[in-house]
Design goal:
2 copies of one chain form a homodimer. The first copy, chain A, folds into 2 domains: about 140 residues, Thiolase/Chalcone synthase (Peroxisomal Thiolase, Chain A, domain 1, 3-Layer(aba) Sandwich); about 230 residues, Thiolase/Chalcone synthase (Peroxisomal Thiolase, Chain A, domain 1, 3-Layer(aba) Sandwich). In chain A, a hairpin with a 4-residue loop joins strand 11 and strand 12. By secondary structure, chain A is α/β, with parallel strands linked by helices. In chain A, helix 7 packs across helix 10. Chain A has 13 helices and 12 strands. At the A-B interface, helix 2, helix 3, strand 3, helix 4 and strand 8 of A face helix 2, helix 3, strand 3, helix 4 and strand 8 of B. Strand 3 of chain A pairs antiparallel with strand 3 of chain B, so a sheet runs across the interface.
């Protein structure tokens, strides 16, 4: 197995991008990454594209060759990877394996989602198709309500408070205010978050990430060749996938994500690193409760300590561990199938030292955590500074 | 790179399976393959599932962990691979790479599609979403009509006749009559095919494959370990992917599939074999014209000779090269995202010598060819007998 580097990154602004189609989003991100890396089109051996549900959102399946074609790369084989919200991260894993194994040298991994053409209610229904439709969604269990149950159980079991959930949102909006690509770029005070309308008790509007349009991409190559390209390289040190029961009612734990724990354990083991070595992490905060569970399940804090730690400010920029410096799904936005790549782009920006006002001091190691459905799949990557 | 073997196969009967859901189809095929291989659940390191459009067909995305969970494999990471009709073959490529590279030892690759719950017209519309929706389908260019244009051009350029197209259908129905898993198991005489109602001129009903329910799966392992398992192994000798413009109107050729040619060339090169070495091939005959183009583009016959060769009987069972001994998509059926795995299952059956009345004599090498959309993606594998 060869070491693998990310040598180029690109992403679109995230938001309600009504003037851009999925293919336009895809190529904007992809071509930015290719330009950043300084690779030629004919060097690209394969394209992986993460996407949750273009079939339902824009009537288009088979989007990988469509985006490749539109980017002028119609000779390059491509394939779409889907694992709900973890589609982007899973695509990164497939791309990583194809380079680590020696099969390919230059691989582009992108993620793209166009959510806002169908309206909020329809988009939420489509998102619910990544839970178990036959045993959950069809009975009216929305994504919001399934995560609300986890939040309620976490509160009951560990004393997590609504203020602690809210502090995730306040922090991520504060970080998002420093990110020019974020969908929401302003701070939201605690009193606004606490006073927001309830979506599914105990989760209110500011506990839920938006559904967004956007795309992101990275270019991978063997670490041994990374310095011959233009973009400043970053190392991929470890990757891990995890799995769990599809339906929440089949899980053994309601206050933790087994898939996240499995994925994190494997990635740390492969990287030979520990949670305390991480300077920052991008975790899958589709809901505030998700971030609290993730920072516990990834080993940054003991189970039940995620809420108090966030409330104390331990996870704010340049505190104990900087969590979601990009603004996270909550403020940077949630173009579902692109999220894993948006996280990778943020990690590279941090490790290159290019994050400006949201820069983590002396960032050497970072983790990215991407989750599918209500937690039936998860994937973690650990990235490291080049020198 | 390690050599890779298929050590287990499983598939459902193909057809209108109204009493089975997608997850039931998936586990029937998957568990059959696992039993055939004699591997234990805890040995399985990853699951790849090819599927075109479960989101639209059954309201369910994120189907890989769903099927894994339902099979009792909720600890095994899984991911869905989508490339339209080539989803199954692309999943096989990803699985192959993950074993060849040394990353995984035991990997299950499945394909599943549940097409018939939505009705014929809706299923056809969903299939058309693997063409270019914005530039083809939305204007009324159905799959049928796009392939009809290719057929018309092939007829004009090479003198291919309607009888030659029909002879593909007659042959594949004759083969399907020998396959107990085929959707259609009876011979169809030439006069019925020639007299069938027109779907899109020059293609009539018997030129078009059905849309079906079904699933298929294989178990992969390193060739070095294959003999320690129960199932009789078969070697994967080569794999290749190809790509083309998404929309038919952007292509340079209308009588050939560039993606197929690219994929075939790569697979033959990796295997160190030539078309004349193949004893049989399963090619993607979603339309009769597709089979004629495929046997030309894969190098079995010169361009323009596919029609006459088929009419002469060169591609019938145990003639020059046995094409679609399973019955192909036309008679075995077309569960779209499963097709590539159905082809792999047939190849293994042939190479094990287990094909009964449709057995290819002394089958040593076989090729499988799977295509996405109207040809924007294609994938080829070359398989060989163990001893």
């Amino acid at each position: 197995m060869r070491d693998v580097a990310i040598i180029g990154i690109g992403e679109t602004k995230i938001g309600e991008l009504w003037d851009m189609s999925l293919r336009e989003l895809g190529i904007e991100a992809g071509l930015s990454a290719i330009r950043d890396a300084g690779v030629k089109g004919e060097e690209i051996e394969k394209i992986y594209i993460g996407n949750m549900s273009a079939g339902r959102l824009i009537n288009q399946e088979h989007i990988a060759p469509m985006i490749a074609d539109y980017a002028g790369l119609d000779d390059v084989p491509s394939v779409r990877i889907e694992s709900g919200g973890a589609s982007g991260g899973m695509a990164l894993t497939e791309g990583y394996m194809s380079v680590a194994s020696g099969i390919h040298d230059i691989v582009v991994v992108g993620g793209a989602e166009k959510m806002t053409d169908v309206g909020d209610q329809e988009a939420k229904k489509i998102l619910s198709a990544t839970a178990d439709w036959e045993w959950e969604s069809v009975f009216g269990a929305t994504f919001d309500s399934l995560y609300a149950m986890m939040a309620r159980y976490h509160m009951l079991t560990h004393g997590t408070s609504k203020e602690q959930l809210a502090s995730v949102s306040v922090k991520n909006h504060a970080h998002g205010a420093l990110n020019p690509n974020a969908q929401f770029q302003r701070e939201v005070p605690m009193k606004f978050v606490m006073g927001a309308p309830i979506v599914s008790d105990p989760l209110s509007m500011f506990d839920c990430a938006p559904l967004s349009d956007g795309a992101a991409a990275v270019v991978l190559c063997p670490a041994g060749k990374a310095e011959s390209y233009m973009g400043e390289p970053v190392k991929i040190l470890g990757t891990g996938m995890g799995a769990d029961h599809m339906a929440v009612h089949d899980r053994r734990e309601l206050d933790a994500m087994k898939a996240t724990r499995q994925a994190g354990t494997k990635a740390f083991s492969l990287a030979g690193l520990k949670p305390k070595d991480m300077d920052f992490a991008e975790v899958h905060d589709n809901y505030t409760i998700s971030e609290i569970m993730a920072i516990e399940d990834l080993g940054f804090f003991p189970k039940g300590e995620g809420g108090p730690a966030t409330e104390r400010g331990d996870t704010s920029l340049n505190e104990k561990v900087s969590i979601n410096t990009s603004g996270g799904l909550k403020a940077k936005g949630q173009p579902v199938g692109a999220v894993g790549l948006n996280q990778a782009v943020e990690a590279v920006i941090q490790l290159r030292g290019d994050a400006g006002k949201r820069q983590v001091d002396d960032a050497e190691y970072g983790l990215i955590h991407n989750m599918g459905g209500t937690g039936a799949s998860a994937v973690v990557h650990i990235l490291g500074r080049w020198n």
